[in-house]
Amino acid sequence: MSPSATAALDADGVSAVDVDATTVPSTKPAFRVLGAISSMHMVNDMMQSLILAMYPILKGEFSLSFVQIGLITLTYQLTASLLQPLVGLFTDSRPQRYSLPFGMTCTLTGLMLLAFAPSFAVVLLAAAFVGIGSSIFHPESSRIARLASGGQHGYAQSVFQVGGNAGTALGPLLAAAVIVPFGQRSVAWFGLAALLGIVVLLQVGRWYATHPIVGAGRTKALVAAPYPRKVVIGAVAVLLALIFSKYFYMAGLSSFYTFYLIERFGMTVQNAQLHLFYFLFASAVGTVVGGPIGDRIGRKPVIWVSILGVAPFTMLLPHADLFWTTTLTIVIGLVLSSAFSAILVYAQELIPGKVGMVSGLFFGFAFGMGGLGAAVLGLFADRTSIAFVYQAIAYLPLLGLVAILLPRKVRASASGRQEGGVRASSTRP
């Protein structure tokens, strides 16, 4: 568990939270704010996914090995993973209304560098800027989604997440339609979407600054965590193990899927990009389902099904023909992607009052595992084959068995107060 996460609790498992954050009554979700933040998540992650979608082009342009391809993913995801918990921890106590447009500006800078990169080193620098943008965007936007949830935390996180997954799915489609025929410099046109994102996020920042929790005085109160410190640390460790399983596998599938299709089935680059879109779009749809179901039946069943339940499909994938490869990847995307919203909300309820830090920790760890997975699996692909890599990672979802160690239900805190518009006793992880 991250040191910043353990710092959120004292020796007795008590966390310091804002009095105002525990007394805001339940309301309807702020749909306009949720729609705006989800749309901007789509823009942000679309620009990230353009890097993934450009791998075949960059590989040919700069004569890159699979290790170098993995290093690109590692650079932007590791940058994000290291900074996100720190950004979240800082903004938990010092909300920054202009942090989101600043983060989008960093992503725009990375996009422009990518469009005109003359060398592999500049490509890595561009990836780093995209990672910095994400490290700022995700913790703060996740907090805003929770503030706008009206107490429906799983639903709000799903709405927020589906924007990101939709953007990730759009990247390969747009790359096939624009970047493949017009070349690397055509990436610059997507900067217009980033400029629009900056304008929208300025408006979201104004709403954020006037929200009662953020705009009022920030007196501290002590609110008991739902479990003793050791139990919370153990539960967070289990959740991080599940994130490792999910994102290490997803890194292998998303980073090398186009190469796998080209190598095994002789596809063109554009057709392979379309198949990557099918997988990523299925992941976006799966995200919509996970949060609301977790609100209704509890987070733990969703986590069980989405991680462990996908194992039979991942183990069949390396042995399938083209039709079943496409079908299985769609099923894998649908099922596996439903986990993250449930995991994130579960963690937020384990450590009340630290929404930014927890969001940063889990988004950052997810990005880091994705980057590390891409680099490690790229090395294995160079030394063996992509087909062997897919056979090896097929067993990762079996780590979902560790979900049995999670506490069955997050109990209400001793204070009995509400957090973020919903009573702790009403949650059902």
Automatic annotation (TrEMBL):
InterPro entries: MFS (IPR011701), MFS_dom (IPR020846), MFS_trans_sf (IPR036259). Signal peptide: none annotated. Residues 33-412 form the Major facilitator superfamily (MFS) profile domain. Keywords: Membrane, Transmembrane, Transmembrane helix. The chain crosses the membrane at residues 69-91, 111-137, 158-182, 188-209, 230-252, 272-290, 326-346, 358-381, 387-407. It holds the Pfam family MFS_1. GO terms for molecular function: transmembrane transporter activity. This is FSR family fosmidomycin resistance protein-like MFS transporter. It comes from Panacagrimonas perspica. The lineage of its organism: Bacteria, Pseudomonadati, Pseudomonadota, Gammaproteobacteria, Nevskiales.
